[in-house]
Design goal:
six-stranded mixed β-sheet, 14 helices, 8 strands, disordered N terminus
């Protein structure tokens, strides 16, 4: 640990000497972030879980990539649209060892991740061992090792790894918390019991963000959690919470807890802003964007927002035992029954847990301009919210 700390201190010194404002950012102008570093769960995983525990099967990736691409969707995620908007290549997963390029960022998110460590295993519960604190350790190691290799090996590595100054100029994105809520519900906790863990979640999240700040990060774009009561997998896992429903058919109980989480998250981000006035913290109301899509799906050109595109059986075309791309034994032969719908672009839910590319694009379009942010700054101007 002492060696790692010394190495980290050396990197911090280099970062302190580097420019902290993204190049070319005039007052109120675009920030030109040279890199993005992302932390999160399956909502922003671009291949982490697939690299560690086996690839997401087809038909994942069918719409945009034409093949599975480590994402639990038919195509791009919100984080992909963020990268596109900033002129940055799609983020390589830190855990992926093949064909990766980290010159303009890295993705530490993995599907199933949570803020708190889960007292279980991926194989028993579906929740990832790569909790947020583990992701932060990976990030610290990434800084130390990437800069050692960049400076001492050079060559091709200078094309594949970030420059030292990028760590203080990058945008740091966070999208995590959904699994902390659902994991509580899935072991039959009450809403009151789930709400009771939120203060601890905020302390842990704060600790990780401050760690990233200590490593040079200054620009943070933090998503809240979405309306979990509108996700088929949540409704099927706890049918006792599936009703009462609101006008969009979503579970009132689930969504109240998601809203409680978001309220505390907004307060936490505001506190971080006061603690670190030299940094920019933007709280992004993804919940509002997703709920607008679900509650106004028909008007926006989508079908039933609770009907899964890639799945099998039941009210929501979702089966807990047969996921997207899943197989079942039919007349003695294993056949794929978790098939894609004909037109994913008309569905909101891809697999009962995650959104389709079309839905992800809608969410990105809603949040990119800053109308759902606190303070109300656009994505490309997120370096300007310091001290606000």
């Amino acid at each position: 640990m002492a060696t790692a700390a010394a190495a980290g201190a050396a990197v911090l010194l280099a970062l302190a000497l580097a420019m902290r404002v993204p190049g070319g950012a005039g007052a109120g102008g675009d920030c030109h972030f040279p890199a993005v570093f992302n932390f999160g769960d399956s909502n922003s995983d671009t291949g982490g879980l697939s690299a560690a525990f086996g690839a997401a099967p087809p038909p994942n990736g069918r719409t945009y990539f034409g093949m599975p691409a480590g994402r639990y969707s038919d195509g791009r995620l919100v984080i992909d649209f963020i990268a596109e908007s900033l002129g940055i290549p799609y983020l390589s997963a830190y855990l992926n060892s093949i064909g990766t390029n980290f010159s303009q960022g890295a993705n530490f998110a993995t599907a199933g991740s949570s803020i708190r460590r889960q007292n279980t295993s991926l194989f028993l519960s579906g929740f990832s061992p790569f909790s947020l604190d583990v992701q932060s350790w990976e990030f610290e190691q990434f800084i130390n090792r990437s800069q050692f290799v960049y400076n001492n090996k050079g060559g091709i590595y200078r094309e594949l790894l970030p420059k030292a100054e990028y760590f203080s100029q990058a945008l740091y994105t966070f999208d995590i918390g959904q699994n902390d809520i659902t994991s509580g519900y899935f072991v039959n906790k009450t809403s009151e019991e789930v709400i009771a863990i939120i203060p601890d979640l905020m302390e842990r999240l704060t600790s990780v963000i401050q760690s990233v700040y200590g490593l040079g990060g200054r620009f943070f774009w933090i998503h809240n959690t979405g309306p979990l009561g509108c996700l088929p997998y949540a409704l099927v896992h706890r049918p006792d919470l599936a009703s009462p429903t609101d006008g969009a058919g979503c579970s009132v109980a689930y969504n109240k807890v998601a809203q409680a989480f978001n309220l505390r998250l907004k307060e936490t981000v505001a506190r971080l802003r006061r603690t670190h006035p030299d940094a920019a913290f933007t709280y992004v109301d993804v919940y509002a964007a997703k709920y607008k899509l679900i509650s106004e799906a028909k008007k926006l050109g989508f079908d039933d927002p609770l009907l899964t595109c890639c799945g099998h059986g039941g009210r929501y075309n979702f089966d807990l035992s047969v996921g997207c791309g899943g197989k079942a034994l039919v007349n003695g032969t294993w056949v794929v029954v978790g098939k894609s719908c004909d037109d994913p672009a008309r569905r909101v839910s891809w697999d009962g847990v995650h959104f389709t590319e079309a839905a992800n694009r809608f969410v990105f379009d809603q949040i990119a301009g800053g109308a759902l942010s606190d303070p109300p700054v656009a994505l490309r101007q997120a370096c300007h919210s310091r001290g606000q």
